[in-house]
Amino acid sequence: MSSAPPDADDLRERVRSFLTDHDPSGMERLAFLRARFDAGLAWVHYPPGLGGLGAPRALQPVVDAEFAAAGAPRNDPERNGIGLGMAAPTILAYGTEEQKRRFLRPLWTGEEIWCQLFSEPGAGSDLAALGTRAVRDGDHWIVNGQKVWTSMAHEARWAILVTRTDPDVPKHRGMTYFICDMTAPGVEVRPLRQITGEAEFNEVFLTDVRIPDEHRLGEVGEGWRVATTTLMNERVAIGGNAVPREGGMIGVVARLWRDRPELRTPGLHDALLRLWVEAEAARLTGERLRQQLAAGAPGPEGSAAKLAFARLNQEISGLELELLGEDGLRYDDWTMRRPTEVDFTRRSPGYRYLRAKGNSIEGGTSEILRNIIAERVLGLPGEIRVDKDVAWKDLPK
Amino acid sequence: MTNLLYSEIEEDLRGGVRRVLDDRCPWTGVLAGLEKDEPYDADLWRAVAVQLGCAGLPVPDERGGAGASWRETAVVMEELGRAVAPVPFLSSAVLATAALLAAGDAGADLLAELAAGEKIAVVAVPFSTAPKGPLGTSVRVEDGALTGAVTGVADGAAADVLLVPAPGGLYAVDAADARRTPVTSLDMTRRLCDIALAEAPARRVAEGEAAVRAALTAGAAMLASEQLGLADRCLESTVEYLKTRYQFGRPVGSYQGLKHRLADLWTAVAQARAVARYAAACLASGDPDTDVAVAIAQAHCSAVAVKAAEECVQMHGGIGFTWEHPAHLYLKRAKSSAIALGTPDRHRAALAGLVDLPPA
């Protein structure tokens, strides 16, 4: 492709011509999705040959809308959030040509689900302190350690994995990034039950797992740089879509308020109005962030958006329980279940209250986000680093 | 969805206004002005209203204005808020102008004079009046003349013309025909005065209450942008100070106890920008959501401005409590502005009706 990248009209034309040759009603789902990938109409900002056309990322909705209007099968992106949002951009940035060709197509079609083996019991906010060891053995690596907070591990075919390959240098320097086969011997997945009663996440135990060197992503010792790419994409992914007024959890409480006059008290009215205003402020801030992204000038509001979202969800869900009074004492179901997606609206108020507690922990705690805003946006001095020049093996654990 | 960003033209306008304010409105001058008799800075007003042409931004060309909109006016308000500028922009270029824009031809001449910055007018209502609240006036009309009193009118002493709500409509009164008593105000950068009218000659410029309500709504929307600018400046100056102030051998800004509060404040200011922009955009386009947008903006931005000014005082420590430091200028403006044009609580009460969340 030596010509200019396609514009919206070009893309619509390409989709229509693709649909002429590939009737979604007369084709097997997977065959259709593979053909869509091969036509460069999967993620249009990816390079030609890897599911894209080198088009502007902002034009993806144009393509998705055309396929949706034609009733085409979806690749069910909500089932493979880690794969699409984090593994794929990292493979694109650091993968060899062979890795890109092997992994990206089945990732996009959803044939292969991905998970993320980053956090460890001893390395949460301080991810770079992780201790899962990878030791070279000829053209393989032998991996031992324990990972945690791994969603979809029980369904995943592959994982992105960060390991410690050199314990004798300071923590950021001695890491290496791999693609791990979740079906390999020595990979054991155990559900991790959370305060809601269900288990969205897993613990993953790695015992003498053999990973071929060709599944290494980036250079030996470069793992932190590669992981940073992954985590930056996590923040982009959390940005989310346009939300209508009362589209979030505030809508649930507002409807409850309207439907159940007998529950109303003056104090709860004041609390509800305050949260309603805050929810609108957060929603409009998210909308402004999206407009900045669309205008090609992303602002640092993403961290602020997540911070506000976590606090609001927690306060609103707490208010909902209080408003319900006696009904707030009931819980829908403590059964250990394995949900594949989090849906606040389909469960009971008690579930919402408990699940929202995770919002200020997952994907960067609110405390870490405040550090990020203070240091990267406001330019305030960083935390004192006592571990900066200490070999990883000598750090207190 | 409404555009919540700033256009290039708006950024240029901001740059022009900021240069003038940096040059002619240093905080030391604002501080010195607190103890002068002049109710506002007349030179600065001429520079902003006349030379930069900001007074007529929301007024169409054919009515003597600059033919821009409330969006651009909001950007000017942000800059004036950053500088706690002692000029009657909110009173004359926003409230009085909005009233006359909503009025008929009877106010056309005065509107053009306000837009040109040749005259200053204020809407004679207590500054605390909410857009949908009671007007708090006891003024009566007899034989085309007004008699009565209005307390706590912002920039009343700066005005050439008073726009007085009274039975039957809105009346223009020459300020020289009213008795104006200066009020020792919490915010001496936007002074209040009490107004007494005794058979003052008056000319009706609008019928009914619509013009006053339009003025109060526009005022509340634009005040949110002023509060945004004020909050942004308080945050900025506090961050600057905490990078240079050392205690226990470290910059004070390296302590999480302060960093996290500033991160929360930055988050609140980012939200204030979104809601203030939304209110300005709704007002500019006559969006049916304007009343909701204005109530949200006032409920949110009032609180953010006060929080920012209070954190500014606290995080500056002892120096922030002194007369010689500008923090108190911002604190007094912020707290007064939170009460002005409806407290956050009154705006939330208005929202309850607007979005169907009835009280207990």
How would you describe what is shown here?
The complex is a heterodimer of chains A (397) and B (360). Chain A is α+β, with helices and mostly antiparallel strands and 397 residues long. Chain A is 41% helix and 13% strand. In chain A, the strands form 2 sheets. In chain A, strands 1-4-5-8 form a 4-stranded mixed beta sheet. The model of chain A has no long low-confidence stretch (mean pLDDT 93). Chain A folds into 3 domains: 1-74, no CATH class; 114-226, Beta Barrel (Butyryl-CoA Dehydrogenase, subunit A, domain 2); 239-363, Butyryl-CoA Dehydrogenase, subunit A, domain 3, CATH 1.20.140. Chain A has 11 helices and 8 strands. With 360 residues, chain B is of the alpha+beta class. Chain B has 3 domains: 8-118, Butyryl-Coa Dehydrogenase, subunit A, domain 1, CATH 1.10.540.10; 122-207, Butyryl-CoA Dehydrogenase, subunit A, domain 2 (Beta Barrel); 211-354, Butyryl-CoA Dehydrogenase, subunit A, domain 3 (Up-down Bundle), CATH 1.20.140.10. Chain B is built from 11 helices and 9 strands. Chain B has helices at residues 8-24, 27-33, 42-51, 70-82, 89-102, 108-115, 210-244, 256-285, 290-315, 327-339, 344-354; strands at residues 121-123, 140-142, 145-154, 161-166, 169-174, 179-182, 192-207, 246-247, 250-251. In chain B, strands 1, 2, 3, 4, 5, 6 and 7 form a 7-stranded mixed beta sheet that branches. In chain B, helix 1 (8-24) runs parallel beside helix 4. The two termini of chain B are 33 Å apart. In chain B, 58% of the residues are buried. Classes of the chains: A alpha+beta (397), B alpha+beta (360). The A-B interface holds A 242, 254, 257-258, 261, 264-266, 268-270, 272-274, 276-278, 280-282, 284-285, 287-288, 291-292, 295, 299, 301, 304, 307-308, 367, 369-371, 373-375, 377-384 and B 1, 3-5, 239, 242-243, 250-251, 253-254, 256, 259-260, 262-264, 266-267, 270-275, 277-278, 296, 299-300, 348-349, 351-352, 355-360.
